[in-house]
Amino acid sequence: MTADLEQLCRDARALLLDFDGPVCSIFANYPAPQVATELLDLLASQGAAIMDDLSEEADPLEVLRRTGSLTNQELTRVVEEALIAAEVRAASTAEPTAYGREVIVAARQLHLPIAVVSNNSPQAVETYLREHRLSRHVAKTVGRAYADPSRMKPNPAPIFDASVSLGIVPALCVLVGDSLSDIEGAKAAGARVIGYANKPAKVAAFHAAGADAVVTSMRQIAQALLDQGVQGKPR
């Protein structure tokens, strides 16, 4: 465990968690490329002209983002509704991230308020938290703004929203995220950020992007939080 990680956990007054990655793998049993294809088929059925570089897109969030850039609000709403339904279905079969639950429980034992800050829909996040009996531990869910993909991370707006809801300034919040958009969004908001590098190539990328600490397992964060409890750190 690095001194940086220990210090981040010691200084934190709120924990912000990205959802897909640190908490679970939402599309583990309903693959993201399948969802993306279904969204693209929906766009085609609506008579939308699909850009050549979008026709092979495997990320459903990127399909929504690119649809939103077309400035056709009705089409964006159609894709948004379909994506929400797919995410809720996926959340019901999502695979928990190892030690993700332990991080949440350890933070609550320290009386750290927790918010989930996700580019996935709030409906999907809340479905997962409810089915895994985590809802009572999470003070706030900030999911994707409806039919407004421009507000997804790396836009810092969701992080600001979580900060305001918890009553903790961003500088005292620590976000755990597994993508560059999480790192960039947190830095833009003035929050501290731990990069969860669940793939080896992410380690160097997260350091280069300015993550305050990088871990390869959520266990490292859980242990750092548990150590604070053992030391009797007041909150």
Essential attributes:
235 residues, alpha/beta, Rossmann fold, two-stranded antiparallel sheet, 8 strands
Helix/strand layout:
Blueprint: H1 3-11, E1 14-17, E2 24-25, H2 32-45, H3 60-68, H4 73-91, E3 95-96, H5 100-109, E4 114-117, H6 122-131, E5 140-142, H7 157-166, E6 173-177, H8 180-189, E7 192-196, H9 201-209, E8 213-215, H10 218-230
Parallel strand pairs: 1-4, 1-6, 4-5, 6-7, 7-8
Antiparallel strand pairs: 2-3
Helix pairs in contact: 1-10, 2-3, 2-4, 3-4, 4-6, 5-10
Overview of this protein structure:
This protein is α/β, with parallel strands linked by helices and 235 residues long. It has ten helices and eight strands. Helix 2 runs antiparallel to helix 4 (73-91), helix 4 (73-91) runs parallel beside helix 6 (122-131) and helix 5 (100-109) packs parallel to helix 10. The model has no long low-confidence stretch (mean pLDDT 95).
